[in-house]
Amino acid sequence: MDFDKELDARGLNCPLPILKTKKALADLASGQVLKVLATDPGSVRDFETFSKQTGHELLSHSEAERQFTFFMKKR
Q: What pLDDT digit, counting tens, does each position of 25-44 carry?
C-alpha cells in the first residue's frame, strides 16, 4: 500500500503508539496515509478505537512475526 509517512512505534507500549500516531497525523494533509509499525499486542484494539473516535480511517492492519502494521488515512 502506498503511504506518505512512516512511524516506527516498535518497542513502545500503550498509550505511546497512539500518541505518536496522533502527532504524526497532525503533520499530514487530509487524505494522506500514515504507515505505523508497532509491537504492542494491545495496539490493534487501540487503533480501532482511535479511528472511531477521531474519524481517521484505519485502512488496514496486519500482523507478522509479532509486529503490527497499520495504515491510517487522515480525515
A: 999 999 999 999 999 999 99
